[in-house]
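Q: Predict the assembly, please.
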Amino acid sequence: MKILVTLKPVPDPEQPFRFTGGRFDFSQVGVITNPFDEYALETALRLTDVPDGDKTVRGEGEIVAVSIGEAAACVKVLKRALGLGANRVYHITVPQEELDFSRVARILEGICLGESPDLILMGKQAVDSDSGIVPPYLAGLLGVPQVTAATAITERPGKLLVERELEGGTEQKEVTLPAVVSVDLGIGAVDSVRTLAMDGTFPWAEGPRYPTIRGMLRTKNIPLESHDPEEFTKNHSRALAEGKQELSPPRKPGVIVENIEELAKVLGPFVRMGGR
Amino acid sequence: MCTTLVLLELTAETINPLSLRALSAARAVSEDLAGLALGESASVARKACAYFPGVIHLVTSEEMGAEILAPALCQIMEQSGCTQLVAAATPFSRDLLPRVAALAGASFLSQLSVLEFPGEGKRAVLAGKGVVAVRSLLPVSIITIEPSAFPVAAPLAIEGEISLRTDPVEEFPGISRKIIPSAARGGPSLLDAAVVVGVGRGVGPVQSLPLPLAQLATLLGAAVGGTRATCDSGLFSPDLQIGQTGRVIAPECYIAIGVSGAVQHVAGVRGAALIVAIDKNELAGIFETADVGFVGMWEAVVPKLCELLGSNPR
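A: Predicted assembly structure:
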C-alpha cells in the first residue's frame, strides 16, 4: 500500500504567543507537527508495518510525507517523519499568508495525481486553524471516497472498513481505495488499526510512536525534496481572505470560595433549571 | 430561488436544534431564506415549514454518505441560485459540506462565531485564544456556524411550502455505510444543556460515573461530559469529550470536577457564562479560568453540596 500523509507545521499550542502590531506573533514559539497529523502518520506506519517475531518492522508499503508552508518549519516536521519511518518526504514552500484551505487542497490534488497513492491520511483538523476543511474538500476534488475523524481502521483486500463517532452512534463505512481518511485521536488506541499483515495481533503502544536514534540517523541519507507549488497546480487563487486578528477577551478574574455553603449559594439558582 | 439556504438535519422525530441555531445566524444576514431539510421523514420535514416560506426536502437515508449526498446538494444549490448555504457545525456537516464546496466551486467558512454579512464573519482560532475575521473571495459560500455562539431560532407564524426531492441521488460505487446506534442516554445533551458537569482525571481511576456526581447532575438538570483523559480511559464515550478536540460548549453554567485545565479543554468551555471548578490541587490550571473555585476533595465536597442544594431548592 502506498500512503500519502500530510503534515502541517503548527506553533506549539503549549507555548504562549505574543500579540504585536495587531497580529498573532509566533516568533518566540517552537514549531511542532500538528498533533492530529502525528496520529495520521502513526496510522500510516501501523498500516504498513509487518510482524517480525514479537516486534514489527517496516514492510513493503510506502509512506510519502508531504508538508506545505515555510521551508524551515516543513523541514523540521519532515525530518521527524523520516526518523519515524516515512520512505520519502517533500515540502512545498509557500508563504503562510498565501495559503488557505483551497490552495492547500489544490496543491495536494496535484501531488496525488502525480503520486497515485492508495490512501491519503490526514489529521482531522489542525490545532491552530481548527477547521478540518481540507480532507473532505480534497476527496471531493479527487472524486474519491472519504472518511473524516476516523477512530478505527480495519484493512480488507483493496478496501478499508473505517469507524467514526457520530452523535448517538458509530458510523461504519467501507471504502474502496483510493480514499481520503482523516483521523481523530481515537485512532491511537492499541487495537484501533487492524491490518491483513498483523493478523489480528496488536503490538501497538498507545498513541503515536517516538523517533528512535537509529531512525533519526537514517534521515541523513534521505534527500529532503523541495518543490514549488506551481509544479502541482496552476491555480493560485484563494477562496478565503483572513482579516483582523484579535485576542479573545480574557475572562474576568475568579474567586476562590472557602466554604461549601458559598459554593451552594452560587449554584442554587441552577437547581432544576433543567435543559434549555 | 433564494439567496440563503439553511441546512436542516432531520432526526427520526425532530429537526436537530443545532440546525435552528444556524437559522438564527442566517436570519441576521439575509431576509431571503429557504430551508434545505435532509432526512427520511416527511412529517419531520413538514415541521420546518413553520420557519421558512419554502422548504426543500431531500429525502436521504442513513446509508448515504457524503459521496452520494454532495452532488445532490451541489445541484440543489445551483438550481436555487443561492449565494450562501448556512449550517451548524456538526460531525455530519463537517464531513459533507467541504466536499460540496469542492464540487460547487464554493468557498468555505467554518465554525463562525460571528456572521456579520453574507460570506463574512469571525471565527475562533488557536484553541479559542484568538479570533480572526474571515471573508469569502468567491460568489458562493458554504458556512458552518459554531452552535454554542447562536440561539435556537423561533418559528414564524407561517406555513411554508415543501418541495420534495427524491431523484438526484446517484450511485457512488465501492462504498457501504451503516450506523450502529449507541445506547440511549437520559438527560439533556451536552450541546443543549443549561448546566454541564465536566469530569476530569482528578476523580480517580473509576469505571463508572461516581454516584455523588450523578446526583449533582440530576439536581442541576445537567448534562455530563468528560475531559480527554476520562474519555480515553473509557469513563465516557468519545462523543462526550468536552474541549477543542471534542465538543465546544457554552452553557449557562459549567462545573469542572477534578479537571486540571488543559489548554484544549478550556478552549471548549470558555463560552460558558459561569465556570465553577472543584479540585483538590489549588495550583490546577482550571482555577485560572474559573469564576468560582473551591479547593477540596470532590469525594467530600460534592455530597455536601448536593445536600445543601437538595434541601434548599430555589
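Residues 16 and 209 of chain B are 27 Å apart (CA to CA). The mean pLDDT of chain B is 91.
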